[in-house]
Amino acid sequence: MSIESRRTPYDDEYETCLETRAKLLIYPGELHPDEITRRLGLVPTEANVAGKVRVNRLGREHVVKISGWFLSSEGHVESKELRRHLDWLLALLRPARAALLELQSMRGVTMGIDCVWTSRSGHGGPTLWPEQMHEMAALGLECSFDVYFFGDDQQ
C-alpha cells in the first residue's frame, strides 16, 4: 500500500495543534506496579502505588487510591503529530506483546492508550492511519482521546 495515497501525511509542525501526547495506562489491580515493569521489561514514566502518599504539583499531599503504571510520550517525542507519539509508544510495546496480552487476561487489570490533542485555533484534530489502529488492535489496546478546542483568546 502506498503512503502517497494517504490524505493526511505526517506533519511534525501540525499548524492546528498546540500540543499532543500518547500514554499507556495500566491499572494493575492487585499487582504491584513493579511487577508490570518486570513483566513488560519497560520502565514506566510514572507509577503510583495504592496507599502511598504523593505530593501534587500544588504541593498538596494525597493518598494514592488506585495503583497505576504509565508510559507517556511526553518529553520523549518532539512533534505535534499524534501519530509520531503513537508510533513511539507502539514501538516500545511491540516486543512486550505477549506480556501485555497475558496481563489483559488477569482479573482486575485494565489498560488502554490515552491520547491528548489540544487545538491551537479552535479547529482541526488528530488523524490515525490503519497502521496505528492495526497495531493497537494486535496489542489488545483500546484508545481514548481527550481533545481540547480553544480559540486564540483562550490560550
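the 2nd protein, sequnce then structure:
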Amino acid sequence: MNKLTEQQIQQKLAEGRNYKRLYFELKEKYDAVVAENKQLKQMLVDQKAYFEAIIESQNARITELETMVFGRKPKGGIPVKAKASTKVARSATSYRRPIPPASAITSEEHHVIDSCHRCGHKLTNKAEAIRYEEDIVLAALDLNTRHKTVTKHTIETGWCSRCGQNSSAKDLRGQVTALGPVARSLIVYLVVQSDQTYSQTQDLLWQLYRFKVSSSEIANVLAARSAAYLPEYEQLKTNVRAGPAHMDETSWPIQSERGSGYAHVMVGVDGMPNEHTVVYKLADSRGKGNSETLVGANYNQVGITDRYGAYKHLFIGSDGVDRHQICWAHLHRNARDLTHLECLSKQKQRHVAEFYQNLTGIYASIRDHKEQPFDHVKRSQQASDLLKKVQAICVPHRLDPKKLANLKAGILEYQDCLFLCLTEPNIPADNNKAERALRKLVIKRKKSFGVKTLKGARTMEVLLSVCQSLYNQNKDNFLPALHALATTEASVSV
C-alpha cells in the first residue's frame, strides 16, 4: 500500500476543512429553515384560529340580526333547563263583571211572560231573575243629543289714558274660536298616554264626538300643555332623585337631527317614596352628558342599570362610594342568547350551556336571598360567597367563543357592582322597571317615528313624564288628575 505524499495529505486536509465548513453552513441554513417552517406552522395555526373566531363572531352577529329583523329566537344550540313557572289559578268570579251598585242604575225594564214560548200554555209559579246591562253613551250615535259645549265670551275692552294702552277683561290673543280645556286634556291623553298618532287622534275625535281638530291645533295643544306642566316636570326630577332609581335608554328619532336621537329614562324603585315617578329626557345623542343631566349634580342614591359605559362611575356619591347595581336580568339574557347560536361547535355549545346554567343558579340564589328578611351581616356573607362563584365561572377558557369571552370580561369589570342588591335593602337585582317605562316609547316610535324637532322633543319629554307619573299614581283616576293639573297650573300662571 502506497503512502500518501505530503501534497496529497495537505489536499485531503483542505477538503476535510471545506466539508466541515460546508456542513456548518448547511446546518445553519437547515436550522433556519426548520425554525421558519415552525414559525409558519404556528402562524398558520394562529391565522386559522383568527379566521375561525371571525367567522364565529360574524355568524353570531348574523344570528342576532335575524332575531332583530324577524323577531324570533333562532332554533338550535344545546337545550337548557327552564325554571318551572308557578301559575296562580284564577277564581271563577274574576271572569265575570261585578254587579253594579244601585246608585249606578240609570233605567229599569221589566220583561213580562205569561205563556210558554214553546207551546203557548199558561205559566204558573212565576218568579223574577235580575240581570244587568252596562253600556256607554256614544255621542256620535245620537246626533240630536248635544255632545259638545260652545261658550260665547263677550269681552269688554277699554282705553287707559294714563298707560296709553288698551285693557281687556280676558286675554284676546289666539284665534277667535279656540279649543276648550276638556278637549285639550283628551288630546293630550290620546297622543301621549294612549300612543295615538295625530291622524288617529283626529279620527277618534270625529268618530266619537263629531269633533274636528287640525294637526296644527294638536301640536299647539301639546306645546301649551307642556309649558303648563313644566313646574310639575321639574318637581318630578327632584322626586326621582330623592331615592334609588332605574335608568335606561333607547333610540328615539329626531327628524331635524337626521333621525338620530335617544330617549333616556329615570324611574323610582318599587317600595320607595319615588316609586311612581318617571322622568324622560329626549336628546340628540346617547352621550353620558344626558345621563349626568338626568341624575343631577349631587346624586347620592343607588342606580340600577345595564353595562352601558355612560353609567360607569355615574353613581359615585360625595363619600366616594360607588352605588351602582348592574342588572342581572341583562346578564342572564346575554348568556341565554349565546346558547341559541347554531354557528358554535357542539363542544362549545355544551360549554356555553354550562356557563349559562351556572349563571342562572347564581341569579336564582340572589332572588332566594332577597325573599328573606334583611340582615346586613348575613347578606354581606352571601354576597361574598356569590362573588367567588362569579369569579370562578368567569375564568377565561379555551372554548370560550368571543361573545362569551367578552361577557365574562364585562362581568368581572363590574364585579364590585353585582351584589348591592343584597347588601342594601329594597334594591332590585334587575332593571326591568326602566325597560317597561321605555316600552311605551318603543311602541310610540313604531307608530309616529319619533318627533320632528328638538323643540318637539322638549315638549314630549315633559308630557310623557307627567302623564306616566300620574298614571302610575292612580290609573283609575288618571284623566281627571291630568285635567285638574292643567287647570291648576293655568290658574297659578294667571
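The beta strands are 157-160, 165-168, 245-251, 262-268, 278-283, 303-305, 324-326. The first helix runs from residue 6 to 70.
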